[in-house]
Design brief:
This protein is of the alpha+beta class and 424 residues long. The chain has twelve helices and 22 strands. It has three domains: 90 residues, Rossmann fold (3-Layer(aba) Sandwich); 68 residues, ATP-grasp fold, A domain (Dna Ligase, domain 1, 2-Layer Sandwich), CATH 3.30.1490.20; 237 residues, ATP-grasp fold, B domain (D-amino Acid Aminotransferase, Chain A, domain 1), CATH 3.30.470.20. The radius of gyration is 21 Å and the shape is globular.
Length: 424
């Protein structure tokens, strides 16, 4: 079997590592891939948004299944293009990927179908948004409607900040067309949990929980990033909470999408806030999380290729997901200065120490191979150093130990990934 994965981050490296465990998989391609993925797959220099070129490549190489890792191509309709070409592909079509691609859409959907989420209003006119803010309770949250690399969300403590936020999103258009429409919503407090799931249009199967650390600096300070580290499972995601979400959130979302004529096949990532009034949906993503995938897949017992195929074929009801009774922690090694300005192109040493070590993974994000085979830093988030352990404490200790094995010039990491588990 030949598989093509579209994407280039730590998430895609973890997916490809998992795919490579299937004995029927004889060849994996990744477009465009990175320096670590190159060890498991043949990297192809085609961009994730070059749909026609990717489809032509899949035809030429007789790819049996293409798996889309990233949000941009999904929201842009890559799955539609592949299906029009008669190719098998895992992921939602454009009309379903809107669950992530438009926050206004997802908020309206949740309201219409009674799925718990923060109270909100949607605005296209900046003056109306400003008028609304005059009487709104602070803090308040402003969200650009469209995709903005997780950065289009502004938490505003004061009216002044909120006014400034409307300006940033709608007038200065800092996130381009993503900010033509904005959602203004109630500020929620509680623990955040990421829950990923497989969906075949009708059936949903829930994976184990995880928690991300989005801010750049220790103690949840600094700017929002793509994610600086994760742990799984979340000790705060209890059996009761799981039960509630199964009853009021997960299946309801899948059914709502079907009733809207937007059948969803692929991954639904539920970003939840565990509030005093119960779990509420902060956001949906239509793909695996990064770096959630790096801690969820090493714990998954199932053959992921079979699960992907069941989603494509609509037979997910015949599969039960199973996870190890252990824990995993991922610490992101970033380039100092991320998510703003940082240098890249530095050689990374020590990666060979991960070879043959069962519980340890160095998932590559922003890396590339130099001509001579040296691995160089090539992005803000460079590596996701991941370890499994009997419990979260052990996994965390092992992950931080393993961060010592690798070195590059402007290495930066948070030191408190998974610290919250001490409070559980
Ligand atoms: P989102 O991209 O919608 O997940 O937002 C990014 C981050 O902003 C989330 O992970 C939360 O930390 C925070 N956030 C989003 N919506 C809210 C809200 N209504 N209340 C409090 N924090 C929020
Ligand atoms: N780690 C958050 C995300 O993938 O959106």
């Amino acid at each position: 079997m030949k598989i093509l994965v579209v994407g280039s981050g730590g998430r895609e490296h973890a997916m490809i590592w998992k795919i490579s465990q299937n004995p029927q998989v004889e060849k994996i391609y990744c477009a465009p891939g990175n320096g670590g993925i190159a060890g498991l797959a043949e990297c192809v220099a085609i961009g994730a948004m070059e749909f026609e070129r990717l489809a032509a490549f899949a035809k030429e190489k007789e790819i049996d299944l293409t798996v889309i890792g990233m949000d941009d191509p999904l929201c842009g309709g890559i799955v539609d293009v592949f299906e029009q070409n008669g190719l098998r592909v895992f992921g939602p079509k454009k009309d379903a990927a809107i669950l992530e691609g438009s926050k206004a859409f997802s908020k309206h959907l949740m309201k219409k179908y009674g799925i718990p989420t923060a109270a909100y209003e949607v605005f296209r006119d900046p003056d109306e948004a400003l008028r609304y803010l005059e009487t709104a309770k602070m803090p308040i949250v402003l969200k650009a409607d469209g995709l903005a690399l997780g950065k289009g969300v502004l938490i505003c403590k004061t009216l002044e900040e909120a006014r400034e936020g409307v300006k940033t999103l709608m007038l200065d258009k800092q996130f381009g067309s993503a900010g033509e429409e904005i959602v203004i919503e109630e500020f929620l407090t509680g623990r955040e949990v990421s829950v990923l799931s497989f969906v075949d249009g009708k059936t949903i199967r829930i994976m184990t929980s995880a928690q991300d650390h989005k801010r750049a600096k220790d103690g949840d300070q600094g700017l929002n990033t793509g994610g600086m580290g994760t742990f799984s499972p979340s000790p705060f995601y209890t059996r009761d909470i799981d039960q509630f979400c199964r009853e009021h959130i997960y299946q309801k979302t899948v059914d709502a999408m079907r009733m809207e004529g937007r059948e969803f096949k692929g991954i639904i990532f539920f970003g939840l806030m565990l509030t005093e009034d119960g779990p509420k949906v902060l956001e949906y993503n239509a793909r695996f999380g990064d770096p959630e995938t790096q801690v969820v897949l090493p714990r998954m017992k199932n053959d992921i290729v079979r699960v992907f195929e069941a989603c494509v074929d609509g037979t997910l009801d015949q599969i039960e997901l199973e996870f190890e009774d252990n824990a995993a922690v991922c610490v992101v090694l970033a380039s100092d200065g991320y998510p703003e300005h940082y240098e890249k192109g530095f050689p990374i040493s020590g990666l060979e120490r991960f070879e043959g070590k069962k519980d340890y993974f160095a998932f590559h994000a922003g890396t590339r191979l130099a001509e001579d085979g040296t691995v160089l830093t090539n992005g803000g988030r460079v590596l996701g150093i991941t370890a499994c352990g009997a419990d979260l404490k052990e996994a965390r200790k092992k992950a931080y130990e393993a961060t010592e094995w690798v070195r590059f010039s402007n290495q930066y990491m948070r030191h408190d990934i998974g610290k919250a588990i001490d409070e559980a």
